[in-house]
Fold this protein.
Amino acid sequence: MAEHTSSSITIEAAPADVMAVIADFDRYPEWSGEVKEADVLSKDELGRPEQVRMVLDAGAIKDDYTLSYTWTGADQVDWSLVKSTMLRTLDGSYRLKAIGGGERTEVTYQLTVDVKIPMLGMIKRKAEKVIIDRALAGLKKRVESGA
């Protein structure tokens, strides 16, 4: 089983506000440092993104790939890799938990990355950590700014 990296952050906003930013893929390049492009290719029956093409530049990992998204209720989204040039695996999730009477949200981001080229596990974990930390910091800043 592949190893994964996980981290959490508290955002001063209701879970619905956080999930609205997570689901707005067209605006990812504005706040997610590693995602340079994001295009929604298809949506599910509720209008939520189902397949999204992204261009990633995370230092050691650069790629143009497509992810498939599964939405569970209003507080969880999981994704898995559909196709990629460089990546073998890019699976992850955001899980939201209301805290403080629902005015704050704990966001847990889990990520598993595997590349087609040989790479030390330590370097892969470091890349995962960088992606997660930057994504959570960017998400927090974006949600709390009200943009």
The chain is about 25% helix and 50% strand.
